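thought: fold this chain, then report.
action: predict
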Amino acid sequence: MVVGEITEDKEIVVIGGGPGGYHAAIRAAGLGLNVTLIEREELGGTCLNKGCIPSKVFTHFAQEFKKTKHLKEMGMEFGEVEANLSTLQSYKNKKITQLRKGVESLCKANKIEIVKGSASFLSESRIGVENGHEFSLFNFKQSIVATGGEFHYPEGIEFNSTLVLKEREIFQLEEIPEELIVYGGDYISLEIASVFSLLGSSVTLILNDEFSFDSSISKELFRQLKKQKINVIKNSTVQTASQTEGKVMVRLDKENGEVVSLEGSHFVGSGIVKPNISDLGLDRLGLELTEEGYIHTDYQGRTSIPTIWAIGDVTEGPSLAVKAIKQGKAAAEAMAGLEVEVDLQFVPTVVQMSPPIACAGLTEEEAREEGYSVRVSENPVRGNGYAQLTDEKDGFVKVVSDSETDLILGIHIMGMGAAELITSGVLGLEMAARDEDFRFPVYPHPSMNESLLEAVEGLKGDAVHMPTRKKELAR
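observation:
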């Protein structure tokens, strides 16, 4: 590698073209700043090219595949329905390409300079970019680190990209696994288990920890997994997983000391995301990191070095694209002198399984631990007219409130449209809404939105489509 003498001056340099990076770049450009975006692979990052979008193609496909029985019942006539993953892969790749071209067009329209290569800091105001045999030097006024995270996996799992797979590799299959063993209790593992069960796989889900959902959601989730004939093994740790003679052999240790061996056609393991910062040269700068190895930032994304900002998976918090997007926009606005901040208190948790789950705010257990006088209400989706006519009757809406102030503390949804419906919950939580704030508006009818309304009405026993709450006897 030969370093030339020419160094280019840049105003804003964004390292990483994932959802956080390209949102930051476009927002900064929109505020009149000159932006250079460095990406070593494809724009859109892991989310668009390998993670969020590919996985949601599969979850959408599985949910539509599930509907065929109901559509026949309604009178839609068609032949035997089969799931062709080869065709699905072509569709997935087409959509990824379309979305990536859309991001490229947006960057071009905003006059953002795109530089291919791997970046590393040489000083607090200088960066080097390596692309093959080429090496460029940039002086910058400000920089945003948006390099995302990388998965780390337990030792003993022999990944081989054919039968023993990582979570992203499962969405590259062109045939449905006959017997799929899934290891992990995060949203990715749940989506994988649900998708392939609906498509015809015999699925075993190994959990090494408790779900972090509200207890009511967890209880219903286990019921739904059983309904989908997914075999759940709790409190277990996979010690080894390997391919042997065209099969997968898995050895796991249960919490009670029992050793169990499983055999399947495929195995998929979900890893833990850790910040992708090892090649950035941050050790040269003395940039402050957290105890867990994340880049320490303030509420706007500013690091311990005033010229450098950080967003997304390189910072503490949930490993979600929505976090990176929010932080990216805020950092760009703060660079431009606007007063902004990022508050991740009500980041929604979403699982696009069947039925989907979406939650925001405190669980019932967390609210009690924080000392609130807790009141809860659960409205079963089966009581909703729209859920009945669409045959999407599984799930419920649960609302957690403080009985002394009527403040809404948390909203937990399982059922059709949960990801869309939770937006109303997040908005209410952000505005410190009380039950009357949710009850006052007129909700569309018929729609799943009414389940949220009735769940809030149920806090005081006023929901029409729920059994009247029994009054406690005076003591």
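thought: worth noting. The first strand starts at residue 7 and ends at 15.
final: tokens above.
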